[in-house]
Amino acid sequence: MSPSRIASWLVPLMILSVILASTAAKGDHRLSVSYYDKTCPSAQSIVQSVMASRIAADQTMAPAVLRLFFHDCFVNGCDASVLLDDATPFFESEKDAEPNDSLRGFDVIDEIKSHLEHSCPATVSCADILALASRDAVALLGGPTWNVQLGRKDSRGANKYAAEEKDLPSPTANLTELIAKFAEFGLDATDLVALSGAHTIGSARCHHYKERVYGYDGQGGADIDPSFAELRRQTCQAGDDARAPFDEQTPMRFDNAYYRDLVARRGLLTSDQELYGCGGPLDHLVKRYSEDGEAFARHFAKAMVKMGKIPPPPGMPVEVRLTCSKVNY
């Protein structure tokens, strides 16, 4: 067959792949652990293989990918909207929102997607890749694993305003604000405490914690250990972008040290320390997690499954993107 005739067949086939990826979103949206068992049985092993390789090379990719999933699900639901560049004149990228300006790990998701498109074209959504990669990020740093519900679709739009102004929990939020924000997405106070345990790995910029460590008098408030406040002020001397670990002792091990830090008044962010110190039921839960790592692991896994079911808004056009950073055409 001549090259011109081959090319004439390739174009409609490529268009058909895009159509199939988009129209698949019009069917049943219920999630299932076995969603890809027939259409892409190697999906989970591909995700796990890439994640293992990338985290072996750079452990900070684990909290980076986990953070991507949180920031995705809290804006428009778990729809991979956080991965989109400015692909159309109809929306602005969530990547450009201030809370997202330090997000990393996009290249990891792109690498996984490339492998999956080779093995199972137009089948596995970027939203499902984020969900699986987050599970593997936790497990590869010694945390729990869980069965990921699959079958999400990718949105054809993003919401920079929601990411910037209203949907993502603020690092300076108080407990009332945090409980209210999580409740908007069907997550209760127990989910809030368990999911906050993701801060047992990774780090934050001084910009997000300097208000806590300096306080009104420059010495930190009554709810912070003075030596810890001084240590973090020293970090901030390098500038607003200077990073400090959430957990000084085991910053790259997914364990319950985060909760021991809260009990010791050494939570890095205001929104961290707000979970402990009010004398209410959340204090009891933080104390329990600080003493029982297995209980934390179980509750974290359960809360991740629950958060992963936050759907896109009704009527949101969805598809299976062929490239995670842009919509299909």
Automatic annotation (TrEMBL):
Keywords: Calcium, Disulfide bond, Glycoprotein, Heme, Hydrogen peroxide, Iron, Metal-binding, Oxidoreductase, Peroxidase, Pyrrolidone carboxylic acid, Secreted, Signal. Its EC number is 1.11.1.7. GO terms for molecular function: heme binding; lactoperoxidase activity; metal ion binding. SUPFAM superfamilies: Heme-dependent peroxidases. Residues 30-328 form the Plant heme peroxidase family profile domain. Substrate binds at P169. Its cofactor is Ca(2+); heme b. It catalyses: 2 a phenolic donor + H2O2 = 2 a phenolic radical donor + 2 H2O. Ca(2+) 2 binds at T200, D247, T250, D255. The record marks R67 as: Transition state stabilizer. Gene3D superfamilies: 1.10.520.10, Peroxidase, domain 2. GO terms for biological process: hydrogen peroxide catabolic process; response to oxidative stress. Its main location: secreted. Pfam families: peroxidase. Heme b binds at H199. The keyword Signal applies. It is found in: Secreted. Ca(2+) 1 binds at D72, V75, G77, D79, S81, E94. Residues 1-25 form the signal peptide. Disulfide bonds join C40-C120, C73-C78, C126-C324, C206-C236. This is Peroxidase. Binds 2 calcium ions per subunit. Binds 1 heme b (iron(II)-protoporphyrin IX) group per subunit. Removal of H(2)O(2), oxidation of toxic reductants, biosynthesis and degradation of lignin, suberization, auxin catabolism, response to environmental stresses such as wounding, pathogen attack and oxidative stress. These functions might be dependent on each isozyme/isoform in each plant tissue. The active site is at H71. Belongs to the peroxidase family. Ascorbate peroxidase subfamily.
